[in-house]
Design a protein that fits this description.
Length: 147
């Protein structure tokens, strides 16, 4: 701290160096949401949606499902270690629970299992991943900022 700098100014200066600006945070969020990750072999073709719905009923009886395309699997990291895996869906096609309208986006809670290369099970819901998607590492802190 210099003699000409007040304690408040110093804290703002140091905080500015240690914490990204609002604009920087928006750029990081935008990049996370819109920059593709690595291609995956997961997902089902659109003409297999009905088959996947039947598999949901068979494998996860009583658990609601959502159908979505343009999805990304996020491996959430903290200190460079993967601590959880979630799903970000850019386009909800169908949600029988009516929580999300067609065209909305949704991010899931943590992955419990992945079945048939297209069924992403979480504690409360099964997501049917339609079409091609990707996978990327995302800072866990960022997951909680996107609401």
């Amino acid at each position: 701290m210099t003699k000409s700098m007040s304690l408040h100014q110093y804290n703002q200066h140091v905080g500015g160096l240690m914490n990204p600006s609002f604009e920087d945070q928006l750029r990081i969020i935008d990049s996370t949401l819109n920059t593709p990750g690595e291609d995956t072999s997961y997902g089902c073709p659109e003409n297999a949606i009905d088959i996947m719905k039947a598999r949901c009923l068979e494998l996860f009886p009583g658990k609601p499902f959502r159908v979505g395309k343009s999805w990304t699997i996020w491996d959430l990291t903290h200190n460079d270690e993967v601590i959880a895996t979630v799903l970000y869906v850019r386009n909800v096609l169908e949600d029988p629970t009516l929580k999300f309208a067609p065209g909305n986006w949704v991010k899931s809670t943590r992955l419990i299992s992945l079945a048939d290369d297209a069924l992403f099970e979480t504690p409360n819901t099964v997501y049917i991943m339609v079409g091609d998607g990707d996978r990327k590492r995302v800072a866990a802190e960022l997951y909680f900022k996107i609401v």
